[in-house]
Structures are given as C-alpha cells and as structure tokens.
Design a protein that fits this description.
- The protein contains three helices and seven strands; from the N terminus they run αααβββββββ.
- With 149 residues, the protein is an alpha+beta fold.
- The protein is globular, with a radius of gyration of 17 Å.
- The model has no long low-confidence stretch (mean pLDDT 89).
C-alpha cells in the first residue's frame, strides 16, 4: 500500500518535470549566457546540474538555490591541509557544498560571465577539488555557503 497522497504527488512531479524538461531542451538550443543576467546564469547552472542528478541531489540543489547566504569569502589552504574561508572559522571537507563564483563555461576565462555555481568539494588522496569542475583551483576562489537548515 502506498502512503496517502503519494500517487497525487508523483503526478504533480511528473507534470512539473515535463515542463522542466522542455525548459532544459530550450536552454540547450537557445540559451545564450552572454545575454543573460548573473542571476539567470546561476539558475541555468543549477538546472544543468539538476538535469543529471538523482532526485535527492536535485532536492538538495533546489533547497540550496533558494537558501540565504550564511558566509562568503575567498578560500585559502589551512595548516590542516584543508581549505577554509579567509577570516572565518569555516573549513571545507569532503562533501562540503558551496557556490563558487566562476566563469559560466567550464574552461572559460570570460570574466564578464562570472556566475555563482553549485559545487561539492572532494578529496582524492592527493588534493581537494570541486566535483562539478575540477579545473577550478580552490586556492583564492570566491565562494559562498548557504544556510541549509
């Protein structure tokens, strides 16, 4: 037996996801980040990652998108070998989530298209990196952490 309301919620989600799928198809064909605002580019990056995520990751990303900023600043390497936000007690570990202010295109260097992008930190036994874009170096990058709870 299903939980009460489960079938109705699944139908609502299906309808919403079908609309989102059409939006993503439009983005792939027509979205030009050069003509978008920073907020629109940020939303586009979230949608790009959500498109390839599990349901639980997608829910977390949507919560993060709408959450308030708790702290922001530049990352630097700490004596422990981890990275933290300069001037704060915030330390990132494997699995930490944040938004990184980085070029819209993965390998781009177009400073006009800097965009807040959701990222997760991971450690590979040698170095910390961002899972979503390992080309971005952690040292000196501007990040912000959202209030998730």
């Amino acid at each position: 037996m299903l939980r009460e309301g489960m079938a109705a919620r699944m139908y609502e989600v299906q309808t919403s996801l079908a609309g989102l799928q059409k939006d993503l198809e439009w983005m792939d064909a027509c979205f030009d980040p050069r003509e978008a605002t920073e907020e629109e580019r940020t939303l586009a990056k979230y949608l790009e990652i959500i498109e390839n995520s599990s349901v639980s990751r997608a829910v977390n990303l949507l919560q993060m998108l709408h959450a308030d900023v708790r702290v922001s600043g530049y990352l630097s390497r700490l004596p422990s070998g981890r990275y933290g936000i300069e001037g704060t007690d915030v330390e990132l570990t494997s699995g930490s989530t944040c938004e990184v202010y980085a070029p819209y295109h993965e390998l781009g260097d177009d400073d006009e298209l800097l965009t807040w992008q959701p990222m997760r930190v991971e450690y590979d036994c040698a170095e910390y990196h961002f899972i979503e874009n390992p080309y971005i170096k952690l040292d000196g990058v501007l990040i912000r952490i959202k209030r998730m709870w």
